[in-house]
Amino acid sequence: MKKNTKTRCAQNNRRGEILVAAAALFRDKGFGASTIRDITNTVGIASGSTFCHFKSKREILDAIAIEGMRQVLLGAEALERRRMTPEERLRTLMRQHVGFLHDAPTRDFVTVLLYESRELSDAARAEVMVLMERYETIWKNCLRRLAPAAKGGIKESLLHRLLFGALNWTVHWYSPGADLPPERLAEELAELVLPGMKDGSGKALS
């Protein structure tokens, strides 16, 4: 029994190594330009060994996208269980989101999810969409409490898309050495958007 457990652990570790290596390659070279040989060379395993864990390169991509979205959702769900003000919750959601985009190891997974989604299988795309909808609901609930739709007719559905667009676009221009650390960057971005969600007294609308 112990031998079987060790074998399963080794298989899971190898599967994880393949995903981490593939995510980095897909992010740097693109899914289309990366090969199975590139992945096996990076992991340091025999060519063809990936087929013990995945049937194809696309199946590897599917697993990366699902795992990336799952990690993002888990972070937001953990945050949702904590007691905090709507403003604190939004700040933390923004820090988490930027962190997932720019901090290892999720950085490669989430970036690949964002820019290789057209290459996903139908089944994987559907699973990612379910996870994404749950994630977006957490953001919408936060924004609904922070900036009700009554203010200027702005709806949380528009606000969350606006914020997602701004945050996700940072992958195009962010430079680790030249720009602020991800956590500080998120704080600066929060300072830009929060004033528009407050009343004349400076208090968050609720």
Q: How would you sum up this structure in a few lines?
A:
This protein is mostly helical and 206 residues long. The protein has helices at 2-29, 36-43, 57-80, 86-102, 106-115, 122-146, 156-173, 182-193. The chain starts with a helix and ends in a 13-residue tail after the last helix.
Describe this structure in words.
It is a single chain. This protein has helices at residues 2-29, 36-43, 57-80, 86-102, 106-115, 122-146, 156-173, 182-193. It is an all-alpha fold and 206 residues long. α1 (2-29) packs across α3 (57-80). The longest helix is centred in the N-terminal third of the chain and has 28 residues, at 2-29. The protein is elongated. The relative contact order is 0.11.
Termini separation comes to 56 Å
Gyration radius, in Å: 20 Å
Q: Please estimate the helix content.
A: 55-70%
Mean pLDDT: 85
- The count of strands amounts to 0
Spans of at least 5 consecutive residues whose pLDDT stays below 50 are 1-10
Largest sheet: none
Helix/strand-derived class?
A: mainly alpha
List the helices and strands in order.
HHHHHHHH
Total number of helices: 8
Question: DSSP strand (E) fraction?
Answer: under 5%
- What's the overall geometry? elongated
